[in-house]
Here is the input.
Amino acid sequence: MKAVYINAYGGPEELVYGELPDPVPGVREVLVKVVAASVNPVDWKVREGRLKFLSGKNFPMVMGTEVSGTVVAMGDKVEGFTPGDRVYAGLSHRGGGYAELVAVDYRKVVRIPDELPFIEASTLAIAGVTPMQAFTLHYPVKPGDEVLVNGGSGGVGTYAVQIAKVLGARVTAVCSTRNAMLVKRLGADEVIDYEREDFRKREAAFDVVLDAASNAFFPETKRCLKNGGMLIKLNLSAGSLLLSLWSRFFSPKKLKMILVKNRSEDVRWLIDQITSGKVQVVMDMTYPLEDARLAHEYSQTGRVRGKVVLEV
Ligand SMILES: NC(=O)c1ccc[n+]([C@@H]2O[C@H](COP(=O)([O-])OP(=O)(O)OC[C@H]3O[C@@H](n4cnc5c(N)ncnc54)[C@H](OP(=O)(O)O)[C@@H]3O)[C@@H](O)[C@H]2O)c1
Here is the structure.
């Protein structure tokens, strides 16, 4: 099969488009013929070796952490799937998605309806389920809550703004001038242009701040939280870990770092929101599989609006 893989951790130049043996599904695995592979910042963080403790050292390492496609074969102990099913599949940090075929544990595979295009379906969990879990598991958002999404125009942010609206929140999105109309269109009640105003300077204004831009540090951000409010960070760091422990016991304002959990029921919830028209998948760019390097370089600019996807 054709795949995009690395033989060593490093820059985008490490990405190789070439031939690898077809994967063989294990007894509990489904073999998926990939149609689309989402490109997420975690992919280039894995490529750079920043998440070695999760991605391991098994080279050649095929990149890609989530895909959509059709089922072509399955192991003996797989239940609930038949060849031809259209599916979403969530992979681990060990990757496998930038390829024509991938074998996935059937419990991480979810059937998708005919009306959901493959390109959109490939983006469901990392960008979409992350904010869904932030606003339901970690800080259960209630109608009328004030939610701020820092980085409202990116992959996570565009989903986050809409999901917070579905949950009944009043949403403030932070982005640059060029993306203000986009986040308004997605339902943001207020837009803060970070080139003109620092949201951190607002006083006790928000119940929850989701930091998809990774630049909201707790000591300076807690001022804008209400008592009982929470800053949710998406990137792990030792400093934030210590502060989150401290905040748990000693502060009325909390800090939490989260890692998306691969839960099929959450992917299904999001599919329902999309097919009922409450959430739209915002697409920025698609690239053919062989141009994965260009897709990584674009993602690394930090200027992506919505999602980037590889077409296989
Ligand atoms: N913990 C987890 O489970 C988890 C899950 C998913 C993602 N993540 C992490 O979450 C982060 C966001 O992911 P993503 O897919 O949303 O990334 P992304 O799509 O690359 O985000 C790009 C967006 O960030 C905005 N941005 C850049 N600088 C900003 C600033 N100073 N203030 C506000 N917005 C700014 C950009 O808007 P402008 O062009 O308008 O500046 C752009 O629209 C990544 O670090 C990713 O690794 C973690």
